[in-house]
Specification:
172 residues, mainly beta, Lipocalin, eight-stranded antiparallel β-barrel, 1 helix, 5% helix, TTHA0802/YceI-like_sf, Polyisoprenoid-binding protein, Lipid/polyisoprenoid-bd_YceI
């Protein structure tokens, strides 16, 4: 077992907070948020983790789609500028991180599956820990309920959204 206790800074240049949605039920659209902060204090079961994402930093690689997702149909960033996650139970040794996810005006508990890839000292003397975390949510549970029905009976944007975080944390 590796000792992951301590204060960490999430390296923004080597970390991605993103999502995957199905489009027209036949393909995937991936996106990420370019602006966020993360405070991590790892102390076993007493760990504290808080992530604050600037909702209008969404980036799907398409300006028109990004503009639509910032509007009232999706994130309504003028009214709800932040998405937050606050951990309530960190059991990363067993691959689980549970916390409260807030999107728009809704807060719900979610559990992320976590994989730690190890710790290594980089050439600059930083002790880095690599990780991935994923979960799936129903966007409608968070009042992101834009619907555009398809002739097949499906919808333009899937209700199930995969959230994925992959990156590197530097021990302070």
């Amino acid at each position: 077992m590796t000792d992951y206790q301590g204060t960490y800074e999430i390296d923004p240049t080597h970390t991605r907070i993103g999502f995957i949605a199905r489009h027209a039920m036949v393909t995937k659209v991936r996106g990420n948020f370019d602006e966020w902060t993360a405070d991590v204090q790892a102390d076993g079961k007493n760990s504290s983790i808080k992530v604050v994402i600037k909702a209008d930093s969404i980036n799907t690689g398409n300006a028109d789609r990004d503009g639509h997702t910032k509007g009232e149909d999706f994130f309504d960033v003028a009214k709800y500028p932040e998405i937050t996650f606050v951990a309530t139970d960190a059991d990363v040794e067993n691959g689980k991180l549970t916390g409260d996810l807030t999107i728009k005006d809704v807060t719900k508990p979610v559990t992320l599956d976590v994989e730690i890839f190890g710790t290594e000292e980089d050439p600059f003397g930083n002790v880095r820990t690599g990780f991935e975390a994923t979960t799936k949510i129903n966007r409608k549970d968070f009042h992101v309920d834009f619907q555009a029905p398809l002739n097949s009976g499906g919808v333009l944007v899937s209700e199930q959204i995969t959230i994925e975080v992959e990156g590197s944390a530097i021990k302070k």
